[in-house]
């Protein structure tokens, strides 16, 4: 039996498989070409020539019937084996919507191929059971229900963005050790009619799987700028920090979106901070370096968020224009555990200082933790120890009471 991912080389004219053969694998063409044909000799009919990047023998992935055509190499040809099990393993890791669509397409294709082969003389077979077609990735009612729920939530989220029905809550970013706010991170919330709130852990991953994240990002940036402008002098000298998704950051229009939002809302660029994760920055270093430099020329500050969860290295920061390093909340937990965590935070803070980066410690749960992190080199902090995320006006009213 051929293993998934195995590479095979065929010489000119050599059969990959013959019509009538049993088969349970397909092939991806890496190099060269193949000819797909039926019959033999004078009765041979060629109906396809395929090249690199194309797949041949795919019906074997969903059908246990003999091969319906022959395939031979044209010149020296290299192929990679795709097994039914290998396809099933990959299906388990993709979005449930994609799984369901693929299962449906493959099942219907099987019926169509049967009709072509039989010339409609035989009744079409029932849809192939998913367990037979893709044994390691059965489609069951739980998957169908999950896909339906996801589709409904996606439609509701799209409507909520269009109707301006989302809210922003804000969490202070404070100057240590006294805890005086210098800025606020904007965090999106989705209230619903029954008085509850849909968790960001539910709808943000959904938005990131679709183009909705672009609409959501644009809504958050605009609303955050508007909220800050609406407070006038109450927020004098303070900034708003907004998270930008990797998908938005990769768009050629990312700079234009931010610049036009600042112009339309009137918020000065120096009062806006954009937060990006390590993974987003490192996914395309050349693009990141160019865009970050352009944003900084505009006057916007750049924060690397959740530092320590991705590449966990300060070395790459030499390449990029950044202003702030936000230590992931796991570092505050490590400091609470003992001296080894403190040494790590002290070392990171010292290196960040050498690079001219301000260090914000996230996840601070008490004033005492803030004072300890300040001694370790963190000049700024954020966490429940200072305030939980709240609507901006309420947060300011509470601080002034």
What integer value in Å does the Rg equal?
28 Å
Q: How many structural domains are formed by the residues? A: 2
Per CATH, the architecture of the largest domain is Alpha-Beta Barrel
Number of E-type strands: 15
Q: Helix share of residues? A: 40-55%
| C-alpha geometry | elongated
Task: Write a structural description.
- It contains 14 helices and 15 strands.
- With about 400 residues, the protein is α/β, with parallel strands linked by helices.
- An 8-stranded mixed beta barrel has the order 7-8-10-11-12-13-14-15, surrounded by 5 helices.
- α13 links the parallel β14 (about 360) and β15 (about 380).
- α4 (about 140-160) packs parallel to α6 (about 210-230), α5 crosses α6 (about 210-230) and α6 (about 210-230) runs parallel beside α8.
- The longest helix is centred in the N-terminal third of the chain and has 23 residues, at about 95-120.
